[in-house]
UniProtKB/TrEMBL annotation:
The protein's enzyme class: ligase
Keywords assigned: Aminoacyl-tRNA synthetase, ATP-binding, Cytoplasm, Ligase, Nucleotide-binding, Protein biosynthesis
Domain Methionyl/Valyl/Leucyl/Isoleucyl-tRNA synthetase anticodon-binding, chain residue ranges per copy: 812-924
Family of this protein: Belongs to the class-I aminoacyl-tRNA synthetase family.
Biological process according to GO: leucyl-tRNA aminoacylation
Descriptive protein name: Leucine--tRNA ligase
GO MF: aminoacyl-tRNA deacylase activity; ATP binding; leucine-tRNA ligase activity
InterPro entries noted in UniProt: aa-tRNA-synth_I_CS (IPR001412), Leu-tRNA-ligase (IPR002302), Leu_tRNA-synth_edit (IPR025709), M/V/L/I-tRNA-synth_anticd-bd (IPR013155), Methionyl/Leucyl_tRNA_Synth (IPR015413), Rossmann-like_a/b/a_fold (IPR014729), tRNAsynth_Ia_anticodon-bd (IPR009080), Val/Leu/Ile-tRNA-synth_edit (IPR009008)
Entry's EC annotation: 6.1.1.4
Length: 962
RNA sequence: GCUCAGAUGGUGGAACUGGUAGACACGCAGGACUUAAAAUCCUGUUCCCGUAAACGGAGUGCGGGUUCGAUUCCCGCUCUGAGUACCA
């Protein structure tokens, strides 16, 4: 029979499902290997052709590893909480779980038809209570933990309480809020419960704080920074404003240093690591305090050194600070400081503005406020600012320095204040020039005539005790001096902020927290999961509360002691968890997906440990991949997981772009569109306008005229001006999108060519990591290849005919060449080249008319990861037992079959290849040179001239220099 | 602006540590089979000159360099894509 992919694929997909062929065991003697895909959000649009790219690659790898004798964990699931389902619910009133359910069914059908070897018994859905129970549980652990800088890890909050009870607040070095109290053990014990809880909240790894959030009125929700693009929501493009709101936050900054260091230990693409490094944004420098020239009051009592510094610089509006604190990475330039600049939002601005300057400052602040985020960003050239009228003192020489405000200083970074060194910083330079402030050179070789010179070369001048020192010595000296006079110290600053952990939405995990006297308390672990309640409408309440406020009777009845069960009721937290909650730990759930007692059993985690290979898009670089690393480190700190990094190796598949096709409508003399369409090659001769045409009715850029007429009613009687009898379409590469009619759905291709062809073609398209436009131009070639492979097993009349004769040298050579090549290719994730190699091998075997079992048996195994259905079918036809192919032994490469005794040396003259000479590989270099020098062809090219030099690389090349 | 990635025939791409540039596939052209078409098979296909051919020259975004030899390494530039946005 001819190659009937439809029957074959259906049959084997059913077989795999019925026999649980890809079920992974949690314990075997085999070595383990964990291959993970980024699980999809099941959107209404279904999978498009770009989705499976990474899934196919990981499936090939998973199947390959199985053949190589590994116990492979290769699961799939759904990130099923999210905005689109909720938006749809708002519009239609349909419960998001219903649409989610439908969408998942579509995804599952689409995934199944591609023949993935997922272990579906481990499927997870983040919106299932059985799953989010553990997301809530992890939240509770975070709530019950604080970060101890001494131990450099998260520690139970109970230990902190024990310390407070015995030693008070001294000796605690924690990552915590800026405003913490300083107290003795007795004072702590004297605190009310409320006071104690309020204090503890400042230490917890997840905590409430009033943050300025990106509030999107149209979506009725708060957005994460990475969900906001240029002041508009990434999804929907609605305007976003800044709003203050009590928000759950995650103290990810506690892990900044570890997140940064960990990058050096994992095998990830360099650009991705770079993105995370930039996001974390470590800068090493110093904090320096500039005393205010005429302090208005005496220093406030300090709570602790650490907190005083920051609290005073931000001041919380008290306006009683006696110095300005700045952060700088060039503390060595401190003698070049000629003014200090505050962000307009800085808390001390009001109190430090003198009456004379009040109008100017207020006008400037008003002007800044009016500017949108977008304007402020785009307008980096214009210099603007206002003098406060106040002065600060240089802490090292007492010089009086003007204090300005300007919007080039950002409130959200460092301390919201900078020491301006116009000789070394271009922004400060422009500012100084514009407002006519002094510019003092501080390095001997500095050239500051037209712009700032940020050099670190040379030695210092105009710098007091630093004069004559170089950068390294100078920096050390300054820091020592600042510490000595108590005006500053070395400091590391991170750009990364704590992550907001909440959204004012319905379709997410409820936060397992209730409020008592305005403070959050966890519910009992035994009360998990806290089920998402039913509500009547998926919108905020009239009073602006999140949708969960609509849930009737949704109140917490405390089980805890002293309350009297069933008596006291409390309000639950009304916001839900953000999109990244469920995806920040899901790889552990796959290890033990049905476990009711734990998020995964200790044994399962100990066995699978971490993900060995993770494939997904780079768009998750600073979101999912950073949060996951954070939660993973936390889970390790509390002893639940063994590995510091969750994803050992990561590959980014490239984005698949759309390839749009155009037809060209002829425009008549009046400028109106006609019903005549001009082929692309002829448009220069006509007046035309381009129209997007559905790529599914175009093949190799040639329009199917009949399908075009059927496509839209108004084209039913279209006429065409053809070239060479064809209508050729124009082409452009754009985003894959419905409105460009360039979306290619894998279903159509799977129907037309089969899953095996689709799988191989997606790989054949090019290197996995490269972005590329989708086009189906080459898919025929892959289909023909599979048919040719099928034909190796059949005679001219499609009868299955395989010989048991011993293979000859040429056949064995072909086989072992492909064994070696495919192994090398898979190990370096070069799937496109292995497809080519398969084609070469099958071409060779076809030429050799090879139908020998000994060869074909092995070919079936090697090809199985790429085209599993056809291979399963042939495997059974070869007399093997159904279902055993996936776990067959991978053929062993034997280099002996590739050994050659002759090599056809390319002979080049001055590096230009001219001819070939075949010589025995047993010859020494000298013998080769002698043979070449006297060879007739070579002599012909030399034309009587003597070669200056002959370079012989054995088994590679001979180069003759003339 | 900064950071990263990339640029090879008509097209997708190959060339793995510097060693025959263009594998494999698409498309195109010609041929076989066929009443014809589809399917299939065969041949050719980087460009230029010349030509049935042999042969000659150029050639991996551009300009330099290192080397016996560079798509590969180094320096400078152009363009494309992605990320980032006054980060002190």
């Amino acid at each position: 029979m001819d190659y009937q992919f439809k029957d074959i694929e259906k049959k084997w997909q059913q077989f795999w499902a019925d026999n649980h062929t890809f079920k992974a065991e949690n314990k075997t003697n085999k070595p383990k290997y964990y291959v993970l895909d980024m699980f999809p959000y099941p959107s209404g649009a279904g999978l498009h052709v770009g989705h499976p790219l990474g899934y196919i690659a990981s499936d090939i790898f998973a199947r390959y590893k199985r053949l190589k004798g590994f116990n492979v964990l290769h699961p799939m699931g759904y990130d099923s909480f999210g905005l689109p389902a909720e938006q749809y619910a708002i519009q239609t009133g349909q419960h998001p779980s219903v649409t989610t359910e439908d969408n998942i069914a579509t995804y599952r059908r689409q995934l199944d038809q591609i023949g993935f070897s997922f272990d579906w018994s481990r499927e997870v859905r983040t919106s299932n209570a059985g799953y989010y129970k553990w997301t809530q549980w992890i939240f509770m652990q975070l709530f019950n933990s604080w970060y101890n800088k001494e131990a450099d890890k998260a520690i139970s909050i109970a230990e902190l309480v024990a310390h407070f009870e015995s030693k008070g607040s001294t000796g605690i070095n924690a990552v915590c809020d800026e405003e913490i109290l300083s107290f003795t053990a007795d004072e702590w014990k004297a605190f009310t419960e409320q006071e104690q809880q309020a204090e503890l909240l400042k230490y917890r790894l997840t905590y409430l704080r009033e943050s300025t959030v990106n509030w999107c009125a149209a979506l009725g929700t708060v957005l994460a920074n990475d969900e906001v693009k240029d002041g508009f929501s990434e999804r929907g493009g609605y305007p976003v404003e800044q709003k203050k709101m009590m928000q759950w936050s995650m103290r990810i900054t506690a892990y900044a240093q570890r997140l940064l260091q960990g990058l050096d230990t994992i095998d990830w693409p360099e650009p991705l690591k770079e993105m995370q490094r930039n996001w974390i944004g470590k800068s090493v420098g110093a904090s320096v305090r500039f005393p205010i020239a005429s302090p208005k009051s005496s220093p406030k009592e300090r709570t602790s050194e650490e907190s005083a510094a920051t609290s005073l610089s931000f001041g919380e509006g008290r306006g009683e600070a006696n110095y300005i604190e700045v952060f700088t990475t060039r503390v060595d330039t401190i003698f070049g400081v000629t003014f200090v600049v505050l962000a307009p939002e800085h808390e001390l601005v009001a109190s430090l503005t003198t009456p004379e300057q009040k109008t100017a400052v207020e006008e400037y602040i008003a002007k800044t406020k009016k500017k949108s985020e977008l304007d402020r960003m785009a307008d980096t050239k214009t210099v603007s600012g206002a003098f406060t009228g106040s002065y600060v003192l240089n802490p090292l020489n007492g010089e009086k320095i003007q204090l300005w405000i300007a919007d080039y200083v950002l409130a959200g970074y460092g301390t919201g204040a900078v020491m301006a060194v116009p000789s070394g910083d271009q922004r400060d330079y422009l500012f100084a020039k514009h407002f006519d402030l002094p510019i003092v050179p501080i390095i001997d070789i500095q050239n500051i005539e037209t712009e700032a010179d940020p050099t670190k070369e040379g030695t210092y001048i105009n710098s007091d005790f630093m004069n004559g020192l170089d950068y390294k010595a100078g920096t050390a000296a300054v820091i020592a001096k600042l510490e000595e006079v108590g005006a500053g110290k070395a400091k590391v600053n991170f750009r990364m902020r704590d992550a907001i952990f909440g959204r004012q939405r319905y379709w997410g995990e409820p936060v397992p927290v209730y409020f008592k006297d305005g403070l959050p308390y966890l519910i009992e672990e035994s009360e998990l999961p806290l089920i998402l309640p039913e509500i009547d409408k998926y919108l905020p309440t009239e009073t602006g509360e999140p949708p969960l406020a609509r849930a009737a009777g949704w109140k917490y009845t405390s089980l805890s002691s002293g309350e009297g069960r069933g008596e006291a009721t409390y309000e639950y937290e009304l916001s839900t968890m953000p999109g990244w909650a469920g995806s920040s730990w899901y790889w552990y759930r796959y290890m033990d997906a049905q476990n009711d007692a734990e998020f995964a059993s200790e044994e399962a985690i100990e066995y699978w440990k971490a993900v060995d290979l993770y494939i997904g898009g780079s768009e998750h670089a600073t979101g999912h991949l950073l949060y996951s690393r954070f939660w993973n480190k936390f889970l390790k700190d509390i002893g639940k997981t063994p590995e510091e990094e969750p994803f050992k190796k990561l590959i980014n598949q490239g984005m698949i772009q759309g390839r749009s096709n155009f037809v060209y409508r002829l425009i008549d003399e009046e400028g109106k569109g006609t019903n005549t369409f001009v082929s692309h090659g002829l448009i220069k001769e006509h007046n035309t306008s381009p129209i997007h045409v559905d790529v599914n009715i175009v093949e190799n850029d040639v329009l199917n005229l009949n399908k075009f007429k059927e496509w839209r009613p108004d084209f039913a009687d279209a006429e065409f001006i053809l070239e060479n009898g064809k209508y050729v379409c124009g082409v452009e590469i754009e985003k894959m999108s419905k409105r460009y009619y360039n979306v290619v759905n894998p279903d159509d291709l799977a129907q037309r060519y089969g899953a095996d062809t689709l799988r191989m073609y997606e790989m054949f398209l090019g290197p996995l990591e490269q972005s590329k436009p989708w086009n189906t131009n080459g898919i025929e070639g892959v289909f023909k290849f599979l048919r040719k492979f099928w034909r190796l097993f059949h005679d001219a009349d499609w009868n299955f005919t395989v010989s048991s004769a011993e293979p000859n040298k040429a056949e064995l050579k072909s086989l072992h060449k492909i064994i070696q090549k495919v192994e090398q290719d898979i190990e370096r994730f070069s799937f496109n080249t292995s497809v080519s190699s398969f084609m070469i091998a099958v071409n060779e075997l076809t030429d050799l008319k090879c139908n020998k079992r000994a060869i074909l048996h092995n070919m079936v195994i090697i090809l199985e990861p790429y085209a599993p259905h056809i291979c399963e079918e042939l495997w059974v036809m070869l007399g093997e037992q159904a279902g055993t192919l996936s776990y067959a032994a991978y053929p062993t490469f034997n280099p002996a079959y590739l050994v050659e005794d002759e090599f056809s040396y390319p002979i080049s003259f001055n590096g230009k290849m001219k001819t070939n000479v075949s010589l025995s590989l047993s010859l020494s270099n000298d013998e080769i040179e002698a043979a070449i020098r006297s060879h007739a062809d070579v002599l012909k090219y030399l034309d009587g001239k003597a070669p200056k030099k002959v370079i012989v690389v054995k088994g590679r090349i001979v180069n003759i220099v003339v």
